[in-house]
C-alpha cells in the first residue's frame, strides 16, 4: 500500500490500465467499484478511472426534470464527456437551451475535460447553444460528432448565432463522422448519399466550423462526399486526415490537399467508389502537369500512414510509391464485408482480387514499412500474392489479411491452410503480429438471437485455436501474437492468443472490431 501511496498518478493509472487489458470492461468496472469502497485511499485511486470517461444517455423528456448532470465532486475526474441522445422522447424542433445551460455549468467544473462527443442524435445535429458551450470550454482539445448530422434547412448555422471567437478555439481534433446517411430507402440506388436538402446544410455548417478550427486542428475526420470544398481551407498544423463515405476525390484534388496541409503525415481514405457522387462540381485548377506531379511526390514523401480502401482510380498515388517515411499501409476495404455494422448495410465495396493487389506489390519495395493491411478476393494469384508480401515489405512486423472466398460453401474450398502458413513463413522474417480473417463459410450462423448457440460457438473457437492458429504459430517462428476474426449475433471481434517461447498459445481477451457506418 505504501508503494501505491508514493506512486505518481500516471503510474497508478498505468497499473489499472494493465489490469483493464486482462479482463472484460464490465468485470473491470465492477471490480473497480468494489475496490473503491474498501478505503478512502483506494476510493481516491479508483474514482479518476471510473469517471475518466463519463457517458450520459438522455431521454429528452426526462432530462428536463433531471437537474443533476454529474455531482460537482466528481466533475474534476472527467476527461471525456459523451452525450448520447438516441433515446429522445420528444422531437427536437426547438433547441433544448435548458440542457445547454446546464452543460455550460457542468463544463466549468470539469477541470480536466479534453474531449466532448455527441452520439446518435436522432432528431437534429449539434445546435448553436451546445456548440457555444463545448467550443468555449478552455481545456477542450477534441470535439467529435458521431451519427448526429444536421438534416433540415432551419439547422443552418451562421456567424451571428454561433458566438465562438476564433482565438478561443484550440481544438486539436475535430471529427464529424456520418459516412452514410439514411435519406433514401435501403432499396434505393441512392441509399447512403446526401440529398439536396441535407447535403448543403451539412456542408455550410462544416465550412463555418472548419474556419474556426483550421489553424489549430491536427486531426480532421469528415464525410467523403463533403470533402471537396473543405480542401480549399489552409490547415498549417494538420497531421492526419480521414474521409469516409462515397468516393469524392479526383486526381487533381490532391495538389490542393498537400499545398494547404504541408505537415500532413497520415491520410485515410475509407471510401466506396461510385461513378459520380459530387455534392458540388468544380473544374481542375489551371496548373502545369509537372507542377501538379511535384505536389503529389513532395506531399506523399512525408506520409507515415496511408489508407486506400478503394484502390480503383488511385494509380497516380500508387505510382509514387515507395515513400521514404511510410510506416503503415492499408488496402483494407470499407465497409469490411461480413463484419458487424456492414452485415446489415446495402453498401457493398468492390473487393480487389489477389491478382490486382499483386500487380501493385510487384512494383514496390518499402523497407520502412512495419504494418500492412489488405483485403482481397481469392483468384489464381493467391499464392503469388502471399509470397510477394515479404519481398515488398522486408521489415514487416504486423500483417492483417482479410481473405475472401467468392461463392465458397465450405471451409475446404480454396482452403488457406494447405499453403498459407508456410508461404508467409519467409526466412529472416520479423513478423510478430498476425491478424487473419479467413472468411469461414462454415462458421456458426446466428439467425435467431433467442437460440442458444453457446455449444457451437465454443466448438468453433476451439477449432480456431487448435486447428488454425496453431498451424501459423508453428510455421512462423517470429510470431508473438495471433488473432483470428470471429463473429457472434451482434458483434465481430478478434480471438487473440499470446505466443510463448515454446510456441504455446495463451488465450487473451477478445478485441472488438469497431465498424461505424
Automatic annotation (TrEMBL):
This is F-box domain-containing protein. It comes from the Eukaryota.
Amino acid at each position: 500500500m505504501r508503494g501505491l501511496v508514493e506512486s505518481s498518478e500516471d503510474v497508478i493509472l498505468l497499473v489499472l490500465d494493465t489490469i483493464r487489458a486482462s479482463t472484460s470492461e464490465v468485470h473491470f468496472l465492477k471490480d473497480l467499484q468494489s475496490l473503491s469502497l474498501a478505503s478512502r485511499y483506494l476510493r481516491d485511486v479508483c474514482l479518476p478511472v471510473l469517471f475518466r470517461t463519463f457517458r450520459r444517455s438522455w431521454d429528452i423528456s426526462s432530462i428536463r426534470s433531471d437537474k443533476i448532470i454529474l455531482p460537482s465532486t466528481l466533475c474534476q475526474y472527467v476527461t471525456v464527456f459523451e452525450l448520447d441522445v438516441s433515446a429522445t422522447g420528444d422531437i427536437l424542433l426547438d433547441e433544448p437551451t435548458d440542457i445547454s445551460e446546464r452543460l455550460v455549468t457542468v463544463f466549468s467544473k470539469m477541470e480536466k475535460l479534453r474531449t466532448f462527443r455527441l452520439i446518435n442524435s436522432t432528431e437534429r445535429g449539434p445546435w448553436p447553444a451546445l456548440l457555444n458551450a463545448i467550443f468555449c470550454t478552455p481545456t477542450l482539445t477534441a470535439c467529435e460528432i458521431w451519427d448526429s448530422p444536421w438534416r433540415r434547412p432551419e439547422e443552418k448555422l451562421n456567424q451571428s448565432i454561433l458566438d465562438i471567437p476564433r482565438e478561443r478555439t484550440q481544438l486539436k481534433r475535430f471529427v464529424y463522422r456520418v459516412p452514410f446517411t439514411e435519406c433514401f430507402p435501403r432499396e434505393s440506388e441512392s441509399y447512403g448519399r446526401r440529398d439536396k436538402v441535407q447535403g448543403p446544410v451539412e456542408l455550410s455548417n462544416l465550412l463555418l466550423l472548419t474556419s474556426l478550427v483550421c489553424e489549430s486542428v491536427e486531426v480532421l475526420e469528415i464525410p467523403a462526399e463533403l470533402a471537396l470544398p473543405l480542401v480549399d481551407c489552409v490547415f498549417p498544423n494538420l497531421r492526419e486526415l480521414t474521409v469516409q463515405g462515397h468516393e469524392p476525390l479526383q486526381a487533381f484534388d490532391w495538389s490542393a490537399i498537400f499545398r494547404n496541409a504541408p505537415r500532413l503525415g497520415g491520410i485515410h481514405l475509407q471510401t466506396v467508389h461510385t461513378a459520380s457522387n459530387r455534392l458540388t462540381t468544380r473544374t481542375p485548377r489551371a496548373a502545369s502537369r509537372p507542377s501538379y506531379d511535384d505536389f503529389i511526390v513532395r506531399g506523399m514523401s512525408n506520409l507515415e500512414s496511408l489508407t486506400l480502401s478503394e484502390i480503383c482510380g488511385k494509380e497516380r498515388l500508387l505510382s509514387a510509391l515507395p515513400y521514404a517515411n511510410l510506416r503503415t499501409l492499408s488496402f483494407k476495404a470499407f465497409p469490411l464485408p461480413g463484419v458487424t455494422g456492414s452485415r446489415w448495410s446495402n453498401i457493398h465495396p468492390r473487393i480487389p482480387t489477389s491478382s490486382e493487389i499483386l500487380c501493385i506489390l510487384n512494383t514496390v519495395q518499402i523497407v520502412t514499412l512495419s504494418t500492412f493491411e489488405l483485403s482481397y478476393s481469392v483468384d489464381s494469384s493467391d499464392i503469388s500474392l502471399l509470397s510477394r508480401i515479404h519481398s515488398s515489405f522486408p521489415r514487416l512486423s504486423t500483417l492483417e489479411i482479410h481473405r475472401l472466398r467468392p461463392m465458397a460453401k465450405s471451409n475446404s474450398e480454396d482452403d488457406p491452410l494447405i499453403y498459407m502458413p508456410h508461404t508467409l513463413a519467409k526466412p529472416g522474417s520479423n513478423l510478430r503480429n498476425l491478424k487473419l480473417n479467413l472468411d469461414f463459410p462454415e462458421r456458426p450462423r446466428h439467425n435467431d438471437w433467442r437460440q442458444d448457440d453457446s455449444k457451437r460457438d465454443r466448438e468453433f473457437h476451439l477449432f480456431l485455436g487448435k486447428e488454425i492458429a496453431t498451424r501459423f504459430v508453428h510455421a512462423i517462428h517470429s510470431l508473438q501474437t495471433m488473432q483470428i476474426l470471429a463473429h457472434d449475433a451482434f458483434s465481430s471481434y478478434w480471438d487473440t492468443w499470446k505466443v510463448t517461447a515454446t510456441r504455446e498459445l495463451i488465450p487473451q481477451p477478445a478485441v472488438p472490431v469497431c465498424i461505424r457506418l
